[in-house]
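Re: [help] complex structure
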Amino acid sequence: MRLGRLVDYVVFTWIALVGLLYFAQFRPYVGEVLAVARRVLPLP
Amino acid sequence: MSAILVLPLAAVWLSVAAVAGRSLLRWSRVEPRGAAETVVLSFLLGFGLASYLVFAVGSLGWLTPATAWTVFAILILLGYPTWRSPGRDGWRSPWTGTREMLTRCRGWRWPLLALAALCALTALLNLVGALAPPTEWDSLSYHLAAPALYLQQGRIFFVPYREWANPFTAEMWNVLGLLLGSDRLPQVFQWAVGIASALALYTVAAARTSPRAGLLAATIYYTSPQIFNLSTSAKSDLAWHAFLFASLHGLLAWRERRSERWLWLAAVLMGLALGTKLQALFWAPGALLTLVMMQGLAWRKPWRPGFRVLAYGLIACVVASPWWLRNWVAGGDPIWPYGYGLFPSRFWTEALAEKYGAWHMGPGDGVEQYPLGLWNLTLQQAAWRFGPRIPVTPLILAFLPGLAVVWRDIPRQIRWFFALLVPTVAVHYTLWFYTYQLPRYLYPVLALLMAAAAYAFWEIVRFRWSRWAATGLLVGSLGTFTGFNLLFNAQFVPVVFGAEKREAYLARYVSFYQDIEWLNRNLPSDAHVLFYHLKPLYLQRRFTLGNLNVWPVNERTSAEDFMRLLRGRGITHIFITELTRRDADFMLTEGLLRDLEARGHIRPTYANPRGVWVESRTFAQRRHVSVQVLELDASGSANVKPVG
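Output below.
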């Protein structure tokens, strides 16, 4: 049971880590994407 | 042709091809199970058959609009037995199948419906992009430009430009689209093949794991930026994926259903994949290895398994051979020009082979990078040229290790399925790693890993804490990509729905469009343009590209030699941009042109210092580049006056 919980925590941490690192790498491109959004969508 | 006409025309053609394919499937006596399998296999066989018919008549020099309708008539004729008695397994059962699937996945009905709805929304958004006039880089360079040249010449032939001599099974549908009078029809055809590729992946995964894992795998695949980018272009990758997945399905079904016919069908589909894209050569050895592995203990008496391996390889090669034979006869190399060194390739040089052989899109092919492939592709996307612009999903890297955690609880036949994917994944990845490393060429393997990751996801959601991280990442990434898709395809809405004029749209999205239009308006109809730009689709005059392999110049080439070459090939005008003039590869050519200009043998007839070079259509990255059109002296003398 304890092992199962440990595995759960490890899997949780791994997925969360991949998710964070993944989205963090696109930070420099947020400006570009917002510029596209302003250009193609009728945003204020 | 308006979108209102393009859609029904595409629907009729694709349906007729699929019905003809259904007849082929019946005659092969392969018995598919369920609607998805039947539709995918029928569609792909019909798609391949129509392509080969166009290739055959086109190679004979009969490429006219009547050709398209002749092919149509042949498809109708072949499909006639199916039209007459559609049977119970084919066209009427998709709803029954869906209902059955939802009943089997009772607790997960709403999430599964949400995934299916997301796929439908993605398909709809992609259709908007596919209905816009072509602007995608490679489509303008060769996927549509080569078919347009075939139509101009009335025949399909070997063209000695890099990429133009690739196997073009999918591009034969681009030929059909152009023959039918629309440059958007080819994109709609490839968009439909994109749906078929997702359905083929679903078929592979659902038949071996579970319908919900299959659906999730297909959703991750189909909503990927790479796939929606391809779905709005005339590229051949989606047909390549579909043939590979269907071939893998056939290979696995051969063992599961104990019918040799499935093996031969798998070989035919592998041949179609080889006839669609050269990179199928990355996959084929792995498929053969899988076949070897699947026969396990049968190798004690080797003649029968050996025969199967040989026959599988032979059938695949025979199906792909029309393309290879044409290149072998015309260019001395079946996979021209990539077989340089192995074959006596004509129209190619050692310097060019070295140059392109050294090209790398990724972080390099050092041994230390080999095991980091998935990590780099997912979390180091900036290491790839254009990488962050077409992101790879994080879900494979996030969920795949989960498979190891639950491995012991996975039913044996599903474990065996995952084990059978290993040779294909490993061989394809290795060959990809040691060549160009374009992430797009790895996508079929990533799709297989998506199937494994999708299965792992449904296992992970049983864990108390991990389920939140897994669901959060799944929803976050699918949502982000759908938002990206919305932005990507929203740019096409004005032109598709008539709010923006085609000319204005093309001027914004196609490099040097206005300069090319100047050529179309002002050059005599018999002009022959030496075109120093990679994308000739919108040029409506005879042209020869300025590729170095067809214009070999070296330090010993004199202005006289070059002028003789230009005249000998009937060149009347030269289209050149600042990008070429500053390119180190064209330094010698630039010197020769300047020399000829100084001697008065070529003179500028058009100059635009603010030509528009489109670096990225999505990110609206453009810069001004000067463009010139030079006219050759019409005196016709090959003798070149000395300067002064």
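DSSP finds 27 helices and five strands in chain B.
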